Predict the 3D structure of the following.
Amino acid sequence: MITKNKYSILVALIILYLSLASSHTFDKVPLINIPNIDKVVHFMMYFGLMSVIILENRKNLLNTGQLFLTGIIPLFYGILMEILQATLTVTRTGSFFDALADGSGILISILLWLLIRPHKKELIR
């Protein structure tokens, strides 16, 4: 199972680092000063995580129900990251809205796969 999902695990570990690293780690990263840009980052991280999970397990996700059930895994992971930020870090805080952005990224990834799936043989071999 680990080797089959090695990229999903890698993405999850990167998210773990980005979620629990001190906020001072990112002070040197020049970002466009857009309010709530972190919500876009959360959306993109969890969209990416769910997309990798789907691609690695596309042969086993045979129906829509399995796909949505699989989406619970990264959703709980995102919620756990928010809880850990609130309890384990000094410079980070957990946020309901960050978890909502995580869930939105997961949902959009699932919906996009449902649109792509009928054409996957042409796109993904």
Summary: The chain has a mean pLDDT of 88.
